[in-house]
Amino acid sequence: MFFTCSRSRPAGIDRRLAVKRNSSANVSTRAGGAGATIGGGTASAIIVSDHIDANRPSREPSVRVLFGNCECARAACSVPGVSSPLPLAQRSTDAADAGAAFDVGIAGAGQLARMTCLAAWPLGLRVAVLGTPTEPAAAMAAGLVEGDWRDAGAVAALGRVSGVVTLENEFVDAAALAAVQATGTPVRPDPAVLARVQDKALQKALLHDAGLPTAPFVVATHPRELAAAGRDLGWPLMLKARRLGYDGYGNATCADEAESVAAFARLDAGDGVLVEGMVAFAAELAAMVARSPSGGVACYPVVETVQRDHVCHEVIAPAPIAHDALGRAREVSLAAAAAADGLGVTGVEMFLGGGGEIMVNELAPRPHNSGHYSIEACETSQFENHLRGVLDLPLGDVGMRAPAAAMVNLLGSAAGPSRPDIAAALAVEGAHLHLYDKAEVRPGRKMGHVNLVGGTEKEQRQILEDIDRQWAHRVSGH
Ligand SMILES: Nc1ncnc2c1ncn2[C@@H]1O[C@H](COP(=O)(O)OP(=O)(O)OP(=O)(O)O)[C@@H](O)[C@H]1O
Ligand SMILES: [Mg+2]
């Protein structure tokens, strides 16, 4: 595992290496392949590596730091034998660990981390991500801790260089995050609560205990319990894997006992599955709630989400539903995010029942696909407010800049290299294109999205359909 960064704060890194690694790190330099030009301002790199001690356990990472462009001069400040005419960048927030190389570390490097990095730059915030150089966020981040968010050692390495650690997915091992927190680096949201939220069964219980309406549910720990669940909740049932489910992977709609027994065998990881009654919803809704440790709270407009095959396809903001239902959904969202002690952004997915009732489907303790419209449509994007929230900075205005906005996800339709035709989307007036720079496309894979701001909801639905048709075959391998 390597820690790789561009435009980082080398003095902080140096100090942490010295302090946290018991001075065993031997920091030395060599010019990068392109030839480093110290202080010259040309594209270049310095690699700083601490050599692996032969006595050190093999999982202990070596550290490689890349500094690009004029930041080489800053990097040089911490490199023995290299001096720099430039001062180190000065940056501090009350909330951030002033000694950390990066203000925020994100345990992941996918599209949510990528868009969070993009929101960080104008605020002068430096974000490190945990992943590989080819992942969507790597090129946008101030720093890359090269590794896997499933690896506790990599999560610990992220913690060592970050003022605060946060998430872009809820599957990161809560114990690994708790270990980071134990070193004194805040992890937001709190790993103890995350442990409940990342298990769909425990999350449902958390929502239920908070008095929030959900679909009726039970946790089945053995297939023989499924017949009774079907009798109590009514067929068909929705079975859900307790952990690691996303975009419907991990869910199964079961018409009868035989189907549910087969699904149980597939979804059970040893501690049973969540079984839900099917909700005959009139619409699916979502809202992002931003919260900060010092009590800041802001609820984004409630949106309608349109799923196809369990994957979010379109978002309409605000949701074109009755005003009082919007109000109830907002109250439920605020209560659900509070029940989960959300910090930064919490995404709240809801069902609108035929009688106008609101039920919580699930929570996401991070920015959410249904909040992407906020990049152009709201005064402060969900990504900026996620940063503000986890850093305990004042939250930004979540109001919309236009009466209506919409988003369509660009989903892969075939497998192969991605060859997006951006002209098709850019030709649509008012369309804002966001691609995630994924080299490989797969059917159903989220490759990007398009936001539309302004106009009426009806006009936007039409444009979304046009974009969707054009892109269905373009974001593909053919
Ligand atoms: N109890 C239910 N009744 C009816 N439909 C449901 C129910 N639970 C889930 N669904 C449908 O399946 C979709 C995906 O379910 P859920 O959100 O639980 O799964 P997920 O894999 O976590 O999805 P995502 O990652 O997209 O949020 C929902 O958006 C909804 O359309
Ligand atoms: Mg969901």
The CATH class of the largest domain is identified as Alpha Beta
Q: What is the overall silhouette?
A: globular
The major β-sheet equals: 9 strands, antiparallel
Gyration radius (Cα, Å) is 23 Å
Counting DSSP E segments of at least 2 residues, the number of strands comes to 23
Number of helices: 14
The CATH architecture assignment of the largest domain turns out to be 3-Layer(aba) Sandwich
How far apart are the first and last residues' alpha carbons, in Å? 35 Å
Structural class: alpha+beta
CATH topology tier name of the largest domain: Rossmann fold
Uncertain parts: 1-97
What would the average pLDDT be, to the nearest integer? 80
Q: How many distinct domains?
A: 3
Helix content: 25-40%
What bound compounds does this protein have?
adenosine-5'-triphosphate, magnesium ion
- Please indicate the percent range of residues in DSSP E strands (runs of 2 or more): 25-35%
